[in-house]
Amino acid sequence: MVDRFLPQLIYIAVLALWEVGCRFGHVPDFILPAPSRIIMAGINFGLAAWAEQLLATLEVVLGGFAMSALISIPLAIAIVRSRPLSRIVVPALVVIQSTPIVAIAPILIVVLGAGTLPRIVITCLITFFPLVIAATTGLRSTPTELIELSHSLRATMHREFLDIRLPYAIPYLFAGFRVSMTLSVIGAVVGEFVAAERGLGYTILYATSLFKVPQSFAALAILIMLSLLLFQVVVQIEKRFFPWSLPQHEGN
């Protein structure tokens, strides 16, 4: 019974120590606010205001994730189908991934404007690399004998990918989805730090500039919960629609 609730008990103990340390240590709010002060700041900000900021961030998160998926999966298929294309594209992907997105974010804002689109593009740039790698690895994980069998039966390339390679790639795809979904939250916050008038990242930046650190921590807590929730959504979709792709102990 204790083992079942051990993580929750540890989290509660950490929060309690945090509260006691801040109160009895007389730590100023602008350095480290106590959990109770963070909760009160969140309540004072108002539910409607939080909903507005959350929806603005969620729009960028889901938009960037969707764009990443729409680009990454066809690109992975192209890489697997063509070796010359693979030798050209993969180094370019590594260069893009190695480029600090924070450094080019202001350039994207200038080129694409200050609307939602540049923040979605920033989120996509942060998330698509692990998804491309996961999809490519999954498509290449198909047993060679099955590919040779499909060739002997004169299966088209379309049928080979749809009926043979894609099912083997599903576990890899969802592993990439889980990573990319959490990175999407980071990408949305980066975009809001650079140029935004709404969103949880903007709220953190604005509140910190006014030394409203408890409000910043409240926005950070909501961001963490959003990331965990979206991660679980991906997990549950895989369990619901692709239970056969999970290890036996997870699928039960």
Descriptive account of the structure:
The chain is mainly α and 252 residues long. The protein has a single domain (42-242), classed as MetI-like (MetI-like fold, Orthogonal Bundle), CATH 1.10.3720. The protein is built from eleven helices and no strands. Helix 3 (47-81) crosses helix 6 and helix 3 (47-81) crosses helix 9. It is globular and about 75 Å long. The chain starts with 5 loop residues before the first helix and ends with a helix. The mean pLDDT is 89.
Brief descriptors of the model:
0% strand; mainly alpha; 252 residues; 11 helices; MetI-like fold
How is the topology of this model organized?
Elements lengths: L5 H19 L10 H11 L1 H35 L1 H16 L2 H12 L3 H24 L4 H9 L4 H38 L5 H10 L3 H29 L6 H4 L1
Helix pairs in contact: 2-10, 3-4, 3-6, 3-8, 3-9, 5-6, 6-8, 8-9, 8-10, 9-10
How many H/I helices? 11
What is the CATH H-level superfamily? MetI-like
What is the rounded distance between the termini? 21 Å
Number of strands: 0
Domain count: 1
**Biggest sheet descriptor:** none
Radius of gyration: 22 Å
What general form does the structure show?
globular
Query: Which blocks of ≥5 consecutive residues have pLDDT under 50?
Result: none
CATH-scheme architecture: Orthogonal Bundle
